[in-house]
Amino acid sequence: MSIFLNSLLIISSFNMNPDYLDSSSAYGNEYNFSNGYSLFIQSVNKLNSDSKNDKENMLSKLCFEICDNKDKNSFRNKFIDVFNKINKIYRNAEHKKIKKTDKLVAITFDDGPSEYTPKLLDALKKYNVKATFFVLGVRSANKLNILKRINNEGHELASHTYNHYALTNLSNSSIFREINNTDRYIIKAKKKPAFLVRPPYGDFNGRVRNIFYNKGKACIMWSFDTRDWANKNVSYVKNLLVDKTKDGDIVLLHDIHKTTVDGFIAALPILVKKGFKFVTVSELMKLREIKLEKGKVYSGGRK
Ligand SMILES: [Zn+2]
After folding, report:
1. Is 254 a catalytic residue?
2. Check: CATH 3.20.20.370 for 103-298?
């Protein structure tokens, strides 16, 4: 019984705090039972389940899962597993509260994944914010685990083609190859091909758009070009993002530069404080009632 109570108390502390907390470091903390239990019930009630019964079922199911383990190690593993599940439900519920009238921004990262992407994902997780990653096929082959992480953590996995060639210089068959060869990796991570494609250098014409139409892809540009690749400076990236980000923006950044990742991470809490809600490109369009269609070009989602 004490294991059961402790686990309730430990879980309760996470649900009341939307900030990212690491389950392994929190395990073993002690909490006052009467406070902890009521906090836990309150937090479960905050979850966006459809009915009271759903919440109660979820609660009892989680409790049974935890109580089922008598062995200390298996209990600990089970606890972390259950913690991660309930934390994910809570985070998703928080994210779903974002509405059309909020100050919305879609941050996009091009040209990755890179060695800096995991650090970026950690920061996004900490603040429970979502972004869109336009990945290159050529960089994805040996970083499939990062592609999977991007998808699993609720970000949008999109295509930036395979080699980063200017598409208008290529033959039709080469453009098809650039798209198909990248989708091969994206399918491995999210079980379906990318719907959103950003042409390298923003370079497209009617012929490229026709191919996007035939391949069932929407063409995504941007409204805020940070030129982070030309200004590899943490303060530049941070200050520009803090000063210039506007509602409805699709912001262009590159997660292959350490200065970009560090500058963005420095700007993130300030932008959160300013009231920005971070959504994926598809979420931005849906919230602003802009229909994403194959072969069409999009560059923002202002009110
Ligand atoms: Zn690029």
Report:
1. yes
2. yes
Among residues 95, 155, 160, 254, the one annotated as catalytic is 254
Residues with CB under 5 A from ligand 1 (ion): 110-111, 200
Report the separation in Å between the CA atom of 4 and the middle of ligand 1, taken as the mean of its atom positions: 51
For residues 20 and 126, the answer to whether their CB atoms sit within 8 Å is yes
Distances (CA, A) of 282 to 90, 190, 252: 21, 15, 15
Please choose, from the candidates 247, 226, 236, the residue with its C-alpha nearest in 3D space to the C-alpha of residue 303.
Answer: 247
Catalytic site includes residue 110: yes
| Domain limits, the chain | 3-95, 103-298
Tell me the three-class secondary structure of 157-214, residue by residue.
EEECCCCCCCHHHCCHHHHHHHHHHHHHHHHHHHCCCCCEECCHHHCCCHHHHHHHHH
- State pTM to two decimals: 0.80
Element (H, E) at 261: helix 258-273
How far away, in angstroms, is 223 Cα from ligand 1 center?
A: 15
Give 29-76 pLDDT, tens digit per residue: 433 334 444 455 555 555 544 445 565 566 556 655 555 555 555 655
d(CA 279, CA 275): 13
